[in-house]
């Protein structure tokens, strides 16, 4: 059972109000819009992979962070080839983050990692129990390993009752999860999907905007950003021009 599966209204009152406004104003949504694609060749993006419980939530936890360009839910940390949701083998549910190192660094990503789950819980988070929900920092190279070890020690110092269970291991193969697990929180909000123009799956998976709204839908954006997006959506509805291009 996934932790947030039963949450009926993840956006709370504001989005319900927006949906009502939508009906009242008779806003027509465009079939789709094109979001400018970030050209990876013009940006020296870096990759980080973490496991911190359900990948639905993990992807949302990083999606809204400044400097995070793209997020992907997947499997990593095990040896099974081609893991699947119902048979992850020895892998952990993970999130792959593509980030712009000019805007955020690995140390800051580690802070988001620690603050987004309870690393003292053994083999799971909340009701998600099982080795696929274990906590792992995947590192690429000695500098990242060093930063991971230092941050884990710091976390252990803060934790008086409980052992930090997080493993630190070398980044191996990351297997993207099935499409239905990508941007999971956003997909539960048809209103937001419409607002960005019902992007086809492939675009949705690569879209920075979708990554951010996935965090917003789960209410996992930093409060200031959560409010900014609220305001932007309200503004769009007021103006009757319901295309959200960026947040
Ligand atoms: C690991 O680091 C090396 C050297 O910095 C880099 O070339 C490589 O792309 C990185 N691998 C991943 C998966 O990010």
Automatic annotation (TrEMBL):
Keyword annotations for this protein, in alphabetical order, are:
Oxidoreductase
Keyword Cytoplasm carried by entry: no
Span of domain Peptide methionine sulphoxide reductase MsrA: 48-187
Q: Which reaction does it catalyse?
A: L-methionyl-[protein] + [thioredoxin]-disulfide + H2O = L-methionyl-(S)-S-oxide-[protein] + [thioredoxin]-dithiol; [thioredoxin]-disulfide + L-methionine + H2O = L-methionine (S)-S-oxide + [thioredoxin]-dithiol
GO BP annotations of the record are: cellular response to oxidative stress
GO terms, molecular function: peptide-methionine (S)-S-oxide reductase activity
Give the UniProt entry's GO cellular component terms: cytoplasm
Pfam families xref list: PMSR (PF01625)
Q: Under which EC number(s) is this enzyme classified? A: 1.8.4.11
Q: Is Transferase among the key words of this record?
A: no
Q: Which family does it belong to?
A: Belongs to the MsrA Met sulfoxide reductase family.
PANTHER family documented for this protein: MITOCHONDRIAL PEPTIDE METHIONINE SULFOXIDE REDUCTASE (PTHR42799), PEPTIDE METHIONINE SULFOXIDE REDUCTASE A5 (PTHR42799:SF3)
Q: What does this protein do?
A: Catalyzes the reduction of methionine sulfoxide (MetSO) to methionine in proteins. Plays a protective role against oxidative stress by restoring activity to proteins that have been inactivated by methionine oxidation. MSRA family specifically reduces the MetSO S-enantiomer.
Task: Show the HAMAP family listed in the entry.
Answer: MsrA
Annotated protein name in UniProt: Peptide methionine sulfoxide reductase A5
């Amino acid at each position: 059972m996934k932790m947030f599966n039963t949450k009926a209204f993840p956006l709370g009152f504001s989005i319900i109000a927006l949906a009502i406004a939508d009906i009242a104003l008779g806003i027509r949504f465009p079939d789709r819009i094109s979001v400018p694609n970030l050209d990876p060749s013009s940006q020296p993006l870096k990759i980080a992979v973490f496991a911190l419980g359900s990948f639905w939530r993990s992807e949302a936890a990083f999606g809204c962070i400044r400097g995070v360009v793209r997020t992907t839910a997947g499997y990593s940390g095990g040896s099974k080839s081609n893991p699947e949701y119902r048979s992850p083998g020895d892998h952990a549910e993970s999130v792959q983050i593509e980030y712009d190192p000019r805007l955020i660094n690995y140390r800051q990503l580690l802070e988001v990692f620690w603050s987004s789950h309870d690393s003292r819980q053994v083999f799971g988070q909340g009701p998600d129990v099982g080795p696929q929900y274990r906590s792992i920092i995947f590192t690429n190279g000695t500098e990242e390993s060093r930063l991971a070890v230092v941050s884990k020690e710091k976390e252990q110092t803060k934790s008086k009752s409980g052992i930090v269970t997080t493993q630190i291991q070398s980044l191996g193969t990351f297997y993207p999860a099935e499409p239905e697990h990508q941007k999971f929180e956003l997909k539960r909000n048809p209103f937001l999907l419409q607002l960005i123009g019902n992007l086809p799956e492939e675009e949705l998976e690569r879209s920075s905007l979708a990554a951010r709204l996935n965090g917003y839908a789960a209410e996992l954006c930093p409060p200031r950003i959560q409010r900014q997006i609220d305001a932007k959506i309200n503004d769009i509805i007021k103006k009757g021009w319901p295309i959200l291009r960026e947040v």
